[in-house]
Design a protein that fits this description.
Helix 1 (2-20) crosses helix 10. The protein has ten helices and no strands. Helix content is 80%, strand content 0%. It has helices at 2-20, 25-32, 36-43, 51-61, 65-69, 74-79, 82-114, 120-139, 146-164, 173-221. It has two domains: 2-79 and 191-221, Orthogonal Bundle (434 Repressor (Amino-terminal Domain)), CATH 1.10.260; 82-165, no CATH class. The radius of gyration is 24 Å and the shape is elongated. By secondary structure, the chain is mainly α.
């Protein structure tokens, strides 16, 4: 029964996100490499996408995996309107463009003043851009693309150190990024699994609470 509730939540959320984005079952299936029959099966709560597919759906529609697993009221769904999402995207672009513009301005000033083109600056701002994206992703986009930005942050930090020590040609630094990337990937997958387990556990608890309240109500009526 509890698993049925989880399937029902996912079914309702997939249906809502698909329809509000004017997408057919065939179009969604094509984006996920599944048939429209599979999408229809999910939306009828007759099946449940695996963790990887839930991640794909969350990234496609700009929500978190938690959102897909939770039950939502109509009021909850109206909170994140399209104009609000557009405003968030615009603000993100403004911040990132400002960082790049300031870097370009500083490099031009240095070139005019000292006749030096300090190209390393454009490498050094990549970690900063990644940090900004990670913050926006966590605050506004429910963690969407967080794994992607953290991965870029890891390699950009290594690249920044390499550029700073360019004369020493420390290419071995990039070998350090391999185990770090693996750890980031495993942590991300573990986080998804834990999130699903927690949501399932919460469903069990809510179901048990409802059943206890129903029994108590019946006893009171008697």
């Amino acid at each position: 029964m509890e698993l049925s509730q989880l399937k029902q939540n996912v079914a309702q959320n997939i249906f809502y996100l698909r329809t509000v984005n004017n997408m057919t079952q065939s179009e969604l299936g094509a984006r996920l490499n599944y048939s429209d029959k599979t999408i229809s099966k999910w939306e009828r709560a007759e099946g449940l996408p695996d963790v990887y597919v839930l991640t794909q759906i969350s990234e496609l529609f700009g929500v978190s995996v938690d959102y897909l697993l939770e039950e939502h009221t109509e009021q909850d769904r109206r909170v994140e309107t399209q104009p609000l999402r557009n405003t968030k995207r615009l603000l993100t672009k403004i911040v990132l463009t400002s960082i790049i513009a300031i870097t370009v301005l500083i490099s031009v000033i240095l070139y005019l003043a000292k006749d030096i083109f300090y190209w390393q600056m454009f490498v050094y701002i990549v970690p900063l851009i990644c940090v900004v994206q990670i913050i926006f992703s966590a605050v506004w986009w429910h963690g969407k693309w967080t794994f992607f930005y953290i991965s870029i942050l890891v390699w950009s930090v290594i690249g920044t150190i390499y550029v700073a020590l360019l004369s020493y040609n420390c290419w071995q630094l990039f070998l350090v990024g391999i185990p770090v990337q693996i750890v980031v990937f495993l942590c991300f997958k573990m986080g998804l699994a834990i999130s699903i387990v927690q949501k399932t556990s919460d469903l069990f608890k809510r179901k048990g609470k409802k059943q206890a309240e129903a029994v108590k109500k019946e006893n009171d009526e008697e």
